[in-house]
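Hello,

I think I submitted the zinc ion job twice by accident. Can you confirm which output corresponds to this input? Input:
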Amino acid sequence: MAQPTCPCGSTRFELHEEDIEGATYTLAVIRCASCGLPIGALESENVGDLAADLSRKIDAQGRQIAAMAAEVSELKTKLVSISHLMGLIEGKMK
Ligand SMILES: [Zn+2]
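Support: Only one job matched these inputs. Its output is below.
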């Protein structure tokens, strides 16, 4: 496999975050480690990592919503019991 070589002769490259005028996000520029000649650019954020992070957050929120739904269901059961007891008390007071 051929080794990439910069026109200056260097075979070492580095990532450098670059603010490009007009770009709405930061780019990671692959450039020659010796002379700085850019040879490519990547999004500085890894989309796969972002998607995995969002997936974890959505899963956590789903678990929180399920826990809240269980609490609401428990409250509903308790309210029905209280309502039933109130009916019994009202019946005895008549
Ligand atoms: Zn170079």
